Amino acid sequence: MQDLQATIEDMAYEATAQGYSFADVRARLDRDVATGKFNVTYLVDEGARVYVERINITGNEKTRDFVIRRELNFSEGDPFNRSMVIRGRTAIQALDYFSSVNVTTGPGSAPDKIVLNINVEEKSTGEYGATAGYSTSDGILGEVSLTERNFLGRGQYLRAAIGASQSGRTFDFSFTEPRFMGLKVAAGVDAYHRIYEETDSSFYGAQSTGGQLRLGVPLTSSLNASFFGGYERKVITDNTGPISQFVADGQEFNKAFIGYTLTWNGLDDIKNPTEGLYATFSQQYIGWDHNLIKSEARGRYFVPLIQDSGIVASVRGQAGMINSLDGEGVNVVEAFSPGSQLVRGFEGRGFGPRTAAGEFIGTTMFAGISAEIEFPIPGLPENYGLSGAVFADAGWVGDASEILNGGLQTATSNDQPLRTSVGASLIWDSPFGPLRGDVAQTLNKSTDDRTQLFQFTISTLL
């Protein structure tokens, strides 16, 4: 019934978009006893000519009226269409500023006029505090952050955070205006300063300072395009190993970048998806001290194995490539560093080209695919937020032949370009976000790869 109602709303919305402002869509169900199925007939008529005389909004003590009104896609004086009202109510709920949104209608000053009443109940949109955790790649880590999703009641997003781990420190600031200049365009700015120390998996440290401007534009109801450009300055520190053939202690890299990202969101629920496709494709040009094109594609498709059982299967794919435009190669500081996020069962920077001394170099190409089945744990209440999963991963990485000064002493570190693993996971929808522990057994690996049986990470969609 939920899919049927969604189809009715979509048909009415499309009819409205084609100029039939009062379109009314109803469904008639006829049961076929012989086959045990229902035949659906959609009845479309013009509907009564009724106009919106006034829109009353109550309950919003913090949120400005215009933040709610701009989600409706219609205003006072426009034709009244029930499907447009339902879609507007859904859009207001999706803001996640309100615990409840109730929409009622009342008579207007004339028979062909109607008053729309929208009552909302606000909830907290600010998050202040400190979190701590543990990652198998970064060790003990913590963060102090301030996040406001409805800054000053204008629907703006603001976040400032300071993080620390055994491998470094981070300082981040982000601001987003979701309706830049009143248009359906999201504009934002990011700034950061990051300090990474030399570790067992990274044989040089670095300090990076940079920022970027962003602009997001919806192309369709499911496809969004974002454009970005920025600058970063990186200084190499704590470089004491043979990797100095690639970078030197104190060496400075400046880069200016510009690019775009296409995002397709066809999921039924962005937080707990059970069906649909989510995919991104991104390209950027990196200049100044570099001359590169970096491309990445990622996608994940979900499908319920058994309806209403909570058992969901998914297939995830990812790939990346860096092209040098001047033929001089790619510096190690811009190379991909695939690891456990590509194939579980390996350390971070655990596989790929290395020097003879075992120092990780990186690669200019990678590709991977993963299949996973997630399921509720029998006997545990749903409010515990715990679920299990089984998975199989496969990933391929290229050699270091395109790395600047690369390919010098890396003959045996990537002798098996294809890596595979299988394993099981425990996933917890915690107050700090979705966390997961993965136990993985590698099946294919190269001579110098570094494996790990268990890893603890934050669960991500891609």
UniProtKB/TrEMBL annotation:
Q: Does the keyword Transmembrane apply?
A: yes
Q: What is its main location?
A: membrane
Looking at the record, the residues that make up the POTRA domain are 50-123
Q: From which domain of life does this come?
A: Bacteria
Q: Name one GO cellular component term.
A: cell outer membrane
Q: Does the keyword Transmembrane apply?
A: yes
The biological process GO terms on file are:
membrane assembly
Q: Which Pfam families did the record assign?
A: Omp85 (PF01103), POTRA (PF07244)
Q: Where in or outside the cell?
A: Membrane
Keywords for the protein's UniProt record, in alphabetical order: Cell outer membrane, Membrane, Repeat, Signal, Transmembrane, Transmembrane beta strand
NCBIfam families, alphabetized: OM_YaeT
Q: Spell out the protein name for this chain.
A: Outer membrane protein assembly factor BamA
The organism is Devosia aurantiaca
